[in-house]
Write the structure tokens for this entry.
Amino acid sequence: MPREAQTLLCLGRVSWKKGLEVVIEVMTRLVHARLVVAGNDDEGLTPRLRALAERLGVAGQVEFRGPAYGAAKNELLARATLLVLMSQSENFGNVVLEALAMATPVVLSPEVGLADDVLQAGAGIVGLEGVEALLADPARRAEMGRKGRVMVESLFSWPVVAAQMEEAYRCSIASRR
């Protein structure tokens, strides 16, 4: 599936803690990029976020898609240039693994639980400061995507997780003896 050029994707709940405001603000520097925000909005924040985009003059670059599930979600992840998750607090971030499984590099806040793993694997960046350079470097993004896919397969695939759980149970049983 071909990637959409210069497309940032924020996928997940539209919530105060997801840092969507800062992603919309960075769009003022990314004049050739677009931002797709996809997710359910139980908090009713979309009108305020649309108003922010209008006020900053980037409304034409920002698209609010609403919830995306199944094949539609997978297509968004596969087509995006970058997944962006600027959460103020994210204990893990399943969407990060979903993006990396699609070889989509990620841009994370330091508060995303997987940020250190992503940096160590070379599968993305932490902080919005490097987004412009990353958008301009397709070879670097492709390498990050490849490394992200390897990270997911080697650390988070079902066989790996199942073996870890089996070992945890084995240790637990052994400690009772």
